[in-house]
Amino acid sequence: MSPRKAILTFSLVIATIAGFSAAPAYGILIEKVVAVVNGEVLTLSELQEEGKPLLRRIVQELTGEEQKEQMKATQQQLLEAMILRRLQLQEAKKEEIQTPPAEVTAAIEGIKRRGGFETDEELKAALAKEGITFERFKKGIEEQLLLSKIVTKQVTSTVILSEEELQRYYQEHQDQYKRPLEVKLRHIFIQVPQRADEEEVSKAEARAEEALAAIRAGMDFAEAAARYSDGPTAKEGGELGRMKQGELAPELEKAAFSLPVGEVSDLIRMSGGFSIIKVEERTTDPSIPFAEVREAIQKALYQEKLQAKLKEWLDSLKSKAAIEVKGLEVSQARPPSLESSQ
Predict the structure, then answer these.
(1) Whole-angstrom Cα distance, residue 284 to residue 94?
(2) Which residues contact 103 (CB under 8 A, 6 or more apart)?
(3) Is 191 helix (H, G, I), strand (E, B) or coil?
(4) Per-residue pLDDT tens for 96-113?
(5) N or C: which end of the chain has fewer CB atoms below 10 A?
């Protein structure tokens, strides 16, 4: 199997089935009850099976007390996630939500396409490397589909956004919807040679003064640029195009964003010579129009409301449920299956 498939397999399995793995997990496990959720038992072996990829990484990367503490914290997080998932699955059962086999098959086929697996055998082999049987993987997919359906019914379908809410969000988050001011410039640059003496500097300055005087006398700036400028845009009439605030040298930026539009600057002394600029256009309002960011606002606000409603729903399930947590004890011994996998 290619390295790409191996990497995809690990991330795909974790994202898709939230850590489900095959039994047996770590050799011989005592069926200790770690929680009871509305009469349904969650065991230590289930928790360890679910967290096998994460726990394996902890065993491989940490030692001693640090390993023990991280194991305990991770198992506690896994237990909380298992309780929430069990509550949602119980709710799906109560609502008589089902996942037809055809949907599960279609989901697995989609995973195979995205992961680059051409056959079931390739997928099964990749899962086996993570200690996951195909049947457990399939069951995990089925449960994920059930979770998606119950969340859609109880949460997602209740998230409604009005145009007024979008407009209000835009007004309250103006700082997020700004872009740098822009200026359109033409530029004449008269170069001063490196290590130039005073005479050479004076000659360059005189040439720059001549160019500026010609412009003041009525010569078109573009013509003056073509005749006098040493800059790379001389043949284009000194056209620099649009520049954002912060992109210009400080000496030029000060003039570019203070001169009236249509005006020509005085000589600007630069480190390598003398510059003259003409401001042709300049934006004055950094605000991005609502129409340009409406879709982004809709997505951001939708996610904000969705997460709030999801938390509210999950909190409601927890508050109405009979949940008994028995507590966790983390063994200091390394699971044999993990030691052999290093």
Answers:
(1) 59
(2) 145
(3) strand
(4) 999 999 999 999 999 999
(5) C
